[in-house]
From TrEMBL:
It is found in: Nucleus. One of its GO terms (cellular component) is replication fork protection complex. This is Timeless circadian clock. It comes from Gasterosteus aculeatus aculeatus. Residues 660-675, 974-998 have a biased composition (Acidic residues). InterPro entries: Timeless, TIMELESS_C, Timeless_N. One of its GO terms (molecular function) is DNA binding. Keywords: Cell cycle, Nucleus.
Length: 1214
């Protein structure tokens, strides 16, 4: 009751508001005093309407637009405020029904309201189809556009936009097919509306907005209006408007009429044959021999014998209803021909638009789309305009300069990307699959028009245009995504989602593309194209669990115990605060997470993260104090140590990860394949015939045959495209057996028996060719008739034509008993031979049959049971599988080392002479373990004396011509980093190249670093860590430790890891990266500084394994006291530094003396006056310095900053 009262009250309020607007007397409208306020009230009412759009329906039923609003703006347009308010109200009332309801409602009640709103919009459109309305709109818009930007107010811009939106909404209203039963060349309501736009001059304003540089903000509105103006038109229809029919059109019409005439004559002949010579009411009864009825008897036919040809068992049965999801997609709408005067006006509009507006407008719209400044799906207007106007330009005397903006590779790429996106959305958004299919069809039309325009450019008389066409074709034929787009679309065609017209455009576009590609290939000897190869790995390897063997556990516990005792069981503050032993987001109750916490402690111990394990244990003790499961509250450190040992050796239950649901298997597999897919791009020589072979697939052939079923309704060009593709498969590829299918033969029978078969000569000839080939094959293969029931791929076609089992015989070659015995004897003879890394490669040249491949031998060995599987014979990697050294190999290595230890390249000679080839790293490690060398630098290449002698003079010359600043900086760097070079003696590269002459003149030598073992760097890292802690860098140390540990967890074990950038986050970490001691720690851990100007951050090298990273992370434990021996080592370094400073002083004095002596020889005595107080050094000191330089094979740096500031110089005393 309340709802009815509210509804009636709302109707009364609306009625009172509408009455307050004014009234129409004859042709004059008298507005009331409250007219403006009433219009604003109606706008407020529309804001609060319900889901059924009741206010909109009531205003439409009251004809408020026809009787009030339009007369107000026509007769009272001088009232600017009232005019603005009326335009606002009409923009709201003319909104499309689809916008009001979101979509076409499925509910019958809402569908009824949707249709009512649409009917009101159609009534509005009919009222707008008058010159008076558009006259006032054109005048107002013209006045506003005359204002400069400085004079134009914000209200003026809003009014311009509202007028454009109003025109767009009116043009968008669909036609009513029940009311408008118009034929071609008759004026519809839309035609009348277009004529009103033309007569009012509004079309000229549209062209001005499209071409004016100052009005580019309205580009999207203008394009929408233009697309709606040409909604019912075709480019071909506008091109031919006002012109006499061409000879080609007359010939096409003649063929169509002839086909219809032949069908009519054939129908008359069949009717004549069906009539008997005399009249008989009794048609007769016949027994059909060989055709069984429901029982065992033959069928009795009670109709005229002439109709028996169409007899089936389904006669009289109810037609089975096709499910909605399996129904063929419906066409959008039919095109109609407008009145001649409208077509002529639109043709002139197109000509002017192409000459003055097209390129600029399309550029602005494209930029807006790329920058995402438009609304959703606005790109469809761009695609329509591209296809429509380029087609019109192609038919109306083609000019390439008029469409140059959209004739580029960028346009091809943009459309191809949209086609791919629309197809993906059509699969994912199934509720809106029809809409996505229409957008995809629009993009395909645009792509087809681009190809047609390129093809038209080839025929141009202008050489530059033909050259541009060649460049575009070379690009689209080179890239794989452009070559294979049609192949992909054909394979993915779905008749339930994509209409028949889409398939026609797809087939015609494919035909055009193949014809252009074939012509392009014929003019060249070879064509190189891009090849994209996608490799998909089988999946990520599961992170390897730490070793749990007794020996490994003992070694792990030894390291953990030492680390905990060294830290005196003290934990850092950050580790204590951030450790949480339970998962608060887990659905498992807190009490049931004790076991999981215990497992986490064990994992930390296995990873040798002692502080984390102890922190977890103490945190778990606070959460679960009952039962002393994690120890009592007053537990001693030794008891904690024993408890951790028990946890490490305990066999704890571990929960397996949950298996994913079966429904999500496919999606998860697809996502995993996308993530693990690696793309490799290369080039290959293009072969057109090989490309056509890819179309020889049932999923490609089936859409062509589906389109062939409507051969009588297809255009001759469409039938030609189908026949040409089938001809390529059947004749060029000799794959006619792929068309041997029962439904295809039924279609061929229909074509051959068609009375108008003369109009389809190409199809008739092809059908006869295929049928002749089939019956020839059936005479040799009696299973050919059974093969008619199935679609066949290439393998099935080959078996059908050449014989069954051919492929299996070829893939599995036969071995005779003699060959098997020979293989067995050779395998037994060489299986235990030493120095044979790959037995299969050894057996291949010894076999009597030289045609055997490695795969054949491996398969036969597995088949004979000589090996378990093919993995046992997997080809070993070079230099990585040999790990163990025999006694003979160790003796050989020692003997070779004694022989070549004095050579310039010791390691290179060893690698060449060793019998069992091994990597450089293996040989170096073995030499160190045998004690033949004490450090790696002893194995580096030495500079040859000849090279040194030749380049020494040049080097000294360069040395003494350096400026004082360069000398100062060089020597400062050398001795400032001397401690680092001594600490990092194990970090130099194993594979440093020998470039002797360049190393004399260059100051920088690139060195790759490898991570030293924990035992080697233990005390050094410990002292450095302690020093950094004293400087207040505990936070960056913890960040470094966590980073190393995380990198180790995600590092692959397959040897294909990459360098990981070490990026500091936060000011504290960034400041630490500037600390010299912190960077020295990074070098000791094996991290690499930026190699060149293209790198910004330090990197964790790919050569460092996950175990090394974990060891490095474990070595960064917090220290509360100075490690043993650290003070002594610090004193030793201090002494060495002092000695180094003394040697620096001597070295500087000697080199400066030589320089001054040479200057004295070149200059006169007046320029050699005293320059201050000099310190004197003798020549023996200089000789000693030079001898030390020759002994150390390091680059020299000159002159310390401190020495330069104090003014220290030296000269040779006379």
């Amino acid at each position: 009751m309340d709802l009815k009262e509210k509804s009636s009250r709302m109707n009364c309020e609306l009625l009172a508001t509408c009455s307050a607007l004014g009234y129409l007397e004859g042709d004059t409208y008298h507005k009331e005093a409250d007219c403006l306020e009433s219009v604003k009230d109606l706008i407020r009412f529309l804001r609060h309407e319900d889901d059924t759009r009741d206010i909109r329906q009531q205003l439409g039923a009251g004809q408020i637009v026809q009787n009030d609003l339009l007369p107000i703006i026509i007769q009272h347009g001088q009232d600017k405020a009232l005019f603005d308010a009326c335009i606002r109200l009409m923009v709201n009332l003319t909104q499309p029904a689809m916008l009001c309801f979101g979509k076409v409602p499925d509910d019958p009640v809402f569908r009824h309201h949707f249709l009512l709103v649409t009917s009101h919009l159609q009534a509005y459109k009919e009222e707008f189809a008058g010159e008076a309305v558009f006259g006032i709109l054109s005048e107002t818009l013209y006045t506003l556009l005359q204002l400069d930007w400085e004079q134009r107010q914000e209200e003026d811009n809003l009014l311009i936009e509202r007028i454009l939106l109003l025109v767009r909404n009116v043009l968008h209203v669909p036609a009513d097919p029940c009311e408008e039963k118009k034929v071609d060349d008759d004026a519809s309501i839309h035609d009348r509306l277009l004529w009103a736009i033309h007569m009012s001059g509004f079309d000229d304003l549209i062209k001005f907005l499209a071409s004016a540089q100052s009005e580019q903000q309205w580009s999207m509105h203008v394009l929408e209006i233009i697309s709606l103006m040409f909604r019912d038109q075709t480019p071909e229809g506008l091109v031919s408007a006002g012109h006499a029919r061409s000879a080609e059109e007359k010939h096409r019409d003649t063929l169509e009429l002839e086909a219809l005439r032949q069908k009519e004559l054939a129908t008359k002949r069949s009717r004549t044959l069906q009539r008997g010579t005399r009249h008989s009411r009794f048609g007769g009864s016949y027994v059909v021999e060989g055709l069984k009825s429901i029982g065992d008897r033959d069928v009795i036919y009670h109709r005229n014998v002439h109709h028996f040809k169409n007899y089936t068992h389904d006669t009289g049965k109810a037609v089975r209803r096709v499910p909605k999801r399996n129904r063929q997609a419906r066409e959008c709408k039919d095109q109609r021909r407008s009145a001649l005067n409208v077509r002529l006006f639109l043709r002139e509009f197109c000509v002017d638009f192409l000459e003055n507006c097209y390129n600029r407008l399309m550029y602005l719209v494209k930029e807006s789309l790329i920058r995402e400044q438009t609304q959703q799906h606005d790109e469809t207007y761009y695609l329509w305009a591209l296809s429509f106007f380029m087609a019109f330009n192609r038919g109306n005397g083609f000019r390439a300069d008029l469409v140059s903006e959209t004739m580029s590779i960028r346009a091809f790429h943009y459309i191809e990307r949209n086609i791919t996106n629309y197809y993906e959305m059509m699969l994912t958004d199934r509720k809106e699959a029809t809409s996505w299919s229409r957008r995809m069809h629009l993009a395909l039309k645009a792509y087809q028009e681009l190809l047609l325009t390129v093809n038209e450019m080839d025929r141009s008389q202008d050489e530059s245009i033909r050259q541009s066409s060649s460049v575009i074709k070379s690009n689209i034929f080179y890239l794989m995504e452009y070559r294979e787009i049609f192949l992909t679309l054909l394979r993915k065609y779905d008749e339930t989602r994509q209409p028949h017209s889409y398939l026609i455009d797809l087939v015609e576009s494919t035909h055009l593309f193949l014809r252009m590609l074939e012509r392009f290939c014929k003019g060249r000897r070879s064509l190189m194209v891009q090849k994209v190869r996608r490799r998909r790995s089988r999946g990520k390897k599961k992170p390897s669990s730490p070793e749990t063997s007794p020996e490994a556990l003992v070694e792990t516990w030894k390291i953990v115990e030492e680390e905990l005792r060294a830290s005196a069981f003290q934990l850092s503050e950050s580790l204590t605060e951030n450790t949480v032993p339970f998962d608060a987001t887990s659905e498992t109750p807190l009490e049931d997470q004790k076991t999981e916490a215990m497992v986490r402690v064990q994992d930390a111990l296995l990873s040798r993260l002692a502080p984390e394990a102890l922190g977890l244990l103490r945190a778990a003790r606070e959460v679960w104090p009952e039962g002393d499961v994690f120890g009592s509250a007053d537990v001693e450190p030794e008891e904690e140590l024993e408890l951790l040992k028990q946890i490490l050796h305990a066999n704890l239950p571990r929960s397996s990860p949950p298996e994913p649901a079966e429904e999500e298997d496919e999606d998860a597999a697809e996502l995993e394949e996308d993530e693990l897919e690696s793309v490799q791009i290369s080039e290959k020589e293009f072969n057109f015939l090989d490309f056509i072979k890819r179309f020889s697939n049932p999923s490609v052939v089936r859409p062509y045959l589906h389109l062939l079923k409507s051969y009588s309704k297809n255009t001759p060009h469409t039938n030609h495209c189908i026949a040409r593709m089938l001809h390529r498969l059947a004749v060029d590829l000799k794959m006619e057996a792929q068309i041997f299918q029962l439904s295809v033969f039924n279609l061929f029978n229909k074509i051959l028996s068609d009375p108008a078969a003369a109009a389809y000569k190409e199809l008739v000839t092809f059908a006869k060719f295929v049928l002749n080939r089939f019956f020839s094959l059936a005479a040799q293969n009696n299973k050919a008739y059974v093969e008619l029931l199935f679609w066949k791929n290439v393998g099935a076609v080959r078996e059908m034509t050449e014989g069954y089992g051919i492929d299996r015989e070829e893939t599995k070659p036969s071995w005779t008993e003699v060959e098997e015995e020979e293989l067995r004897n050779l395998y037994e003879e060489h299986r235990h031979s030493e120095g044979v890394p790959d037995i299969v490669e050894t057996l291949l040249p010894l076999l009597s049959n030289s045609n055997r491949t490695r795969r054949h031998v491996v398969m036969q060995l597995v088949h004979m049971g000589l090996v378990e599987n093919a993995k046992a014979l997997k080809k070993p990697k070079k230099g990585t599988q040999i790990v163990l050294w025999t006694e003979e190999q160790e003796e050989e290595l020692q003997m070779l080392y004694e022989e070549y230890k004095d050579s310039d390249d010791v390691l290179g000679n060893l690698l060449k002479k060793l019998t069992a080839k091994r990597s450089r790293a293996r040989v170096v490690d073995k030499l160190l373990s045998m004690g033949l060398v004490s450090e790696r630098r002893q194995l580096y290449k030495k500079r040859s004396r000849s090279a040194h002698g030749k380049s020494s003079g040049k080097a000294m010359k360069l040395l003494f011509f350096q400026t004082e600043e360069e000398l100062t900086q060089g020597l400062l760097d050398d001795f400032g980093d001397r401690d680092e070079e001594e600490d990092e003696s194990e970090e130099e590269s194993e594979e440093e190249k020998d470039e002797a002459q360049e190393s004399e003149t260059q100051h920088v030598t690139r060195r790759s670093r490898s991570l030293p073992s924990t035992e080697e760097r233990g005390p050094d890292v410990g002292s450095t860590v302690y020093a950094l802690q004293q400087e207040g860098l505990s936070g960056p140390l913890l960040w470094l430790q966590n980073s190393l540990y995380k990198t180790a967890m995600y590092r692959d074990d397959d040897g294909f890891s990459q360098d990981v950038p070490f990026v500091p986050f936060g000011e504290e970490n960034a400041d630490a990266m500037e600390n010299k001691t912190f960077r020295r720690l990074l070098r000791k851990l094996g991290l690499r500084p930026p190699a060149n100007e293209q790198e910004t951050f330090w990197r964790i090298p790919a050569e460092i394994s996950d175990s090394q990273l974990k060891s490095a992370a474990a070595a960064l434990r917090p220290r509360d006291e100075v490690p043993k021996g650290a003070e002594e080592k610090k004193e030793e370094r201090k002494k060495e530094k002092e000695e180094g400073e003394v040697s620096v002083e001597h070295r500087v004095q000697a080199l400066r003396a030589v320089r001054l002596k040479r200057q004295r020889k070149r200059h006169t005595s007046e320029h050699t006056g005293t320059r201050g107080s000099f310190r004197v050094c003798n020549l023996s000191q200089m000789t000693a310095v030079q001898s030390r330089e020759k002994a150390s094979n390091k680059r020299s740096r000159l002159l310390d900053d401190e020495n330069e500031e104090n003014g220290i110089y030296c000269r040779i005393s006379n």
